[in-house]
Amino acid sequence: MIILHFQLYIVILRYKIMGLTKSEIFTDEQNQLSALLKAIAHPARIAILQRIIISNTCICGDLVGELGLAQATISQHLKELKLAGIIQGTIEGVSVCYCINPKTWKLLEEQLGGFLASYKGETTCC
Amino acid sequence: MIILHFQLYIVILRYKIMGLTKSEIFTDEQNQLSALLKAIAHPARIAILQRIIISNTCICGDLVGELGLAQATISQHLKELKLAGIIQGTIEGVSVCYCINPKTWKLLEEQLGGFLASYKGETTCC
DNA sequence: TCGTTAAATTGCAATAATACTATAAATATA
DNA sequence: TATATTTATAGTATTATTGCAATTTAACGA
Predict the structure, then answer these.
(1) Among chain A residues 43 through 102, which have CB within 7 angstroms of nucleic chain C?
(2) Residue B123 exposure: Cα atoms within 13 Å on the Cβ side
(3) Of A30, A111, B38, B108, which residue is least crowded by CB atoms under 10 Å?
C-alpha cells in the first residue's frame, strides 16, 4: 500500500514537470537570451518591430489594418513585446504610442552578437 | 437550412485557422528569420549550440549527461536544430557527430544583424 | 452626460512545444 | 550470433502559443 502511494506520488511529480521548460538547469544568461529571442521569434512581431523602427517617430496603433491581423491579436503581440521589455508604450490621448526600448535592444545586440560571434566558422568536420 | 449550413461552414473555416500562425500574410524574410530565431529560442538549444561551438571539434553526443535532460529530449532538440538547418550531423560509428552549418549561421548573422542594426537608437519619444 | 474611438482584456478553440518513459534501430564488439 | 552502446522514434501528458469575437476600459469631444 505504501509502495502504491509512493508510485502515485512519483507519477504525479513527473507529470507536473511535463510540458514545462526546465529553466532551473540553465544559466541566467541562457534563459534571458532565449526569452528575448522567443519574443522576437514570430513573423507578426518582427513585422511590428520593423514598422516601429521604420517610422522614426513612435507608432500609434496604425498597425491594425496594415498587418492582416485582428486588433486583439496585435494587442496581444504588443503586450508580449512589452513584457519582454523590447518595446515601451505611452498613452497619448485615446491611442497608445510604442517605441523600441533602447536598453533592451542594446542588451539583445550584445548578448546575441557575442553568441553568434563565438562561432568562427573554422571547423567543418561533418 | 441553407443559412445554417453556411454558418457551420464559416465556423469550421474559422476554427481551422485558430492556433495557427498566418505565415501567408508575412514576407518570406520575416518568416525565415522567425523560423531561425524560434529554433534558437530555447535555453537547452542555446546550451547545445554553445557546447558545439566551444569544443572546436564536432560533438558526439556527450551532451546527454552534461545537460540535465533526458536522452530523448536532447535528441529532439538536436532534431529541431537540424531541421532548421542550423546544425548538421554525420554518423560516426555508433554515435553521431554534430557541428554548426556555416551557411545557415552566416545567413542568421546577416539577417539578424541587418534587423538589429536598422534601429539607430535615436528616437526616444516614449 | 453621452456617444465615439482606441486599446486592453476575457473567453474560447485549436495547434505547437516540452519533456518524459519505453521501445526500436543501427552499429560495434566479444 | 549475441550483447552492448548509442541515437532515433513512438506514445503520452502537460503547458504554451496563436488567433479571433465579444466585451470592457479609458480618454476625448460634442
Answers:
(1) 60-61, 64, 71-72, 75-76, 78-79, 89, 94-96
(2) 18
(3) A111
Please name which of B39, B86, B53 lies closest in space to residue A117, comparing C-alpha atoms: B53
**Please, what are the domains in chain B?**
30-115 (1.10.10.10)
Beta-strand pair A95-100/B95-100:
unpaired
Looking at residue B92, its amino acid is E
CB contact under 8 A, A26 and B41: no
Q: Which chain A residue has its CA at the smallest distance from B102's CA? A: A121
pLDDT > 80? residue B96: yes
% residues pLDDT > 90 (chain A): 56
- Cell readout for B48 is 547545445
Q: Collect all residues with Cβ–Cβ distance below 8 Å to B121 and sequence separation of at least 6.
A: A100, A102, A105, A106
Q: What confidence category does residue A8 fall into, taking pLDDT thresholds of 50, 70 and 90?
A: low
Q: Which of B44, B80, B50 is nearest to A112 (CA)?
A: B50
